[in-house]
From TrEMBL:
Protein name: OsmC family protein
Transmembrane segments: none
Database matches in SUPFAM superfamilies: OsmC-like
Pfam families the record matches: OsmC
């Protein structure tokens, strides 16, 4: 895996992957996505993949999955996350709540690479509901 980040102007940058995908981001008062927001979305995306894949592998008929993330950050620099909660809203036909609980917990504790990297210094928690 490779990536490159180039400065465009002011505090505006473009990130490019070796897959030729691009994202423009920024800092300060920019309306663009910030690097910390990208980290947060990466955690939500990574764990959502685990949850949907895990539910499907265990025979669950999942139809929607939304991960809503909330954080707390240090007040002083570096303004790292101190707490992250991922709240999963999942719907489907006849979902087994015991399986939903196991799959969501396993994502944060065993499988999600992003969450596991953050978890070394961040209190990572999850919650879920079947809607």
């Amino acid at each position: 895996m490779k990536a490159e980040v180039k400065w465009l102007e002011d505090l505006k940058f473009v990130g490019k992957t070796d897959k030729k995908q691009e994202i423009i981001f920024g800092a300060g008062d920019s309306a663009l996505v910030s690097p910390m927001e990208m980290v947060l979305m990466a955690a939500g995306g990574c764990s959502s993949v685990d949850v949907v894949d895990g539910l499907k592998q265990l025979g669950q008929r999942v139809s929607t999955c939304s991960a809503k993330l909330t954080t707390e950050r240090r007040d002083t620099a570096p303004r790292i996350f101190t707490k992250v909660n991922i709240h999963f809203e999942i719907s489907g036909d006849g979902l087994d709540t015991d399986i939903v609980e196991k799959v969501t917990a396993d994502s944060l504790q065993k499988y999600c690479s992003v969450c596991l990297m953050l978890g070394a210094g961040v209190e990572m928690t999850h919650s879920w509901e079947v809607i």
